[in-house]
Amino acid sequence: MALGKLQKVLISDSLDPCCREILQAGGLRVQEKPGLSKEELLREIRDCDGLIVRSATKVTAEVLEAAERLQVVGRAGTGVDNVDVEAATRKGVLVMNTPTGNSLSAAELTCGMILCLARQIPQAAASMKEGKWDRKKYMGMELNGKTLAVLGLGRIGREVATRMQAFGMKTIGYDPIISPDVSATFGVEQLPLEQIWPLCDFITVHTPLLPSTTGLLNDSTFAKCRRGVQVVNCARGGIVDEGALLRALQSGQCGGAALDVFTQEPPKDRELVNHPNVISCPHLGASTREAQSRCGKEIAMQIVDMATGKGLTGVVNGQALSKAFAPQTKPWISLAKALGTVLCTAGKQVQGSVQVCTLGAPLKESGSYLTPAVAMGLLAGGTQKEVTLVNAMLLAQEAGLKVTTTHSDVAPEPDSSTGLLQVSLQGTPHQVTGTVQGSTPVLRQINGATFKQPAPLSGPVLIYRAKASDTSALATLTGLLSKVGGQLLSYHSSSTVAGEQWSIVGLSTPLSDLGELKPRVTEVFQLHL
């Protein structure tokens, strides 16, 4: 699977026509087939390089396994709970979303839900259609002066908070990632959840569906709330425990709920939907013309950028891969992969602890993408499925490798201005160090032996260790190359350690038989980097 080689993309859900148009303008072949059955999807996906979905298509492990050429799954929207991200990662398939595309639409729906709860607008409208004029039954409340708890202060949560502040609501909230100082800038006072429950008149949730957020509102938390608390869920079904919500509604502990999402969609159990104090919609958070156009446009542009090598945005499971598109990081990723391959081959094992150390201030933030690249090299040539920056760390772990990263701002001269990458197999003498000169990955050191002139690590390379006093190995190698019409493109030798030197030879073509060379060296291996 080569990045930038996307050719055919399947759109399996209904999307704005601009999505198809942008993909086609980017040189991609597009199949638009919304509403496929599971069996039809399994057939259609086999020869596709990309798949674009909304929320209807379920991208399961079975679908991913059937997709022999798949490189990317694009979710035109925020949540990716309809995509098996772990299975995609294992296969090396990139998953991306459009986290900003439907934020405004979801926030506006949430605000509308809060207003509907306060004034019972849907119930009153339904009553009018039945020919009634029941003013007393639908007594509401003002939002001014009420307290709104916003659980989850990302893009949507903060948009809801600032809009409801315009109605005079006091906004409090909780988010384990956003700092209180940041939330204070958009008017939300952060508090621990235990302090929030008894303070709020309204609760709205805007978190992803995770093990830690499933059932965030439950029997226990409802019991701690003010009697008559109003609840809004326009995020993900399951964040609010539906059984607990129904019990709270029936007891009056919860005065009303507005739900756009459900654990099962569409919900088969209608008891919650049919409750008179529940307002429900069929998952309309992103159902505006503007959001659909924006999401379709954004995901198409992201996939075209990926296909043309321009860059990656909206990446869910391969943040390291996004760095591979930056011109300044590409040679470093090539170096990291080459060092992993050299270490694995020299160490003759692919198990144990591997330490990746970045040296020098320029590489301070580079461990996040260089470590997966080293893992790629360590696994190269193994029996595993194709290894990419997306799945390298997962596959390394499963192969019994523990790959860790450290950093030091100090790198020895002459590499202090560019940096050094050092990879060591813990508990052994095996260690390799390299840097980048211009755009060329080069080896500085192997197992304590230093190269005065760094050796390029690209193309067919032959590496051997022999007695420093014995020059017959090079002559034998030259003879082998001449027999097959090959050329010696470069030769670099290391300092002497225990009477032996390492040599790295750049070849024009790999050698199929090293039999004549092996008696003249201590060890030899051939790589294609």
From TrEMBL:
Boundaries of every D-isomer specific 2-hydroxyacid dehydrogenase catalytic domain copy: 9-317
Assembly information from the UniProt record: Homotetramer.
SUPFAM superfamilies, alphabetized: Formate/glycerate dehydrogenase catalytic domain-like (SSF52283), NAD(P)-binding Rossmann-fold domains (SSF51735), Serine metabolism enzymes domain (SSF143548)
Domain D-3-phosphoglycerate dehydrogenase ASB: 330-439
Enzyme Commission code: 1.1.1.95
Gene (UniProt): Phgdh
InterPro entries the UniProt entry points to: ASB_dom_sf (IPR029009), D-isomer_2_OHA_DH_cat_dom (IPR006139), D-isomer_DH_CS (IPR029753), D-isomer_DH_CS1 (IPR029752), D-isomer_DH_NAD-bd (IPR006140), NAD(P)-bd_dom_sf (IPR036291), PGDH (IPR006236), PGDH_ASB_dom (IPR045626)
Gene Ontology terms: biological process: L-serine biosynthetic process
Pathway info: Amino-acid biosynthesis; L-serine biosynthesis; L-serine from 3-phospho-D-glycerate: step 1/3
Annotated GO MF terms: NAD binding; phosphoglycerate dehydrogenase activity
Domain D-isomer specific 2-hydroxyacid dehydrogenase NAD-binding: 112-285
Catalytic activity: (2R)-3-phosphoglycerate + NAD(+) = 3-phosphooxypyruvate + NADH + H(+)
Enzyme class name: oxidoreductase
Keyword NAD carried by entry: yes
UniProt keyword terms in alphabetical order: Acetylation, Amino-acid biosynthesis, NAD, Oxidoreductase, Phosphoprotein, Serine biosynthesis
Family according to the record: Belongs to the D-isomer specific 2-hydroxyacid dehydrogenase family.
Protein name: D-3-phosphoglycerate dehydrogenase
Domain of life: Eukaryota
Record CDD domains: PGDH_4
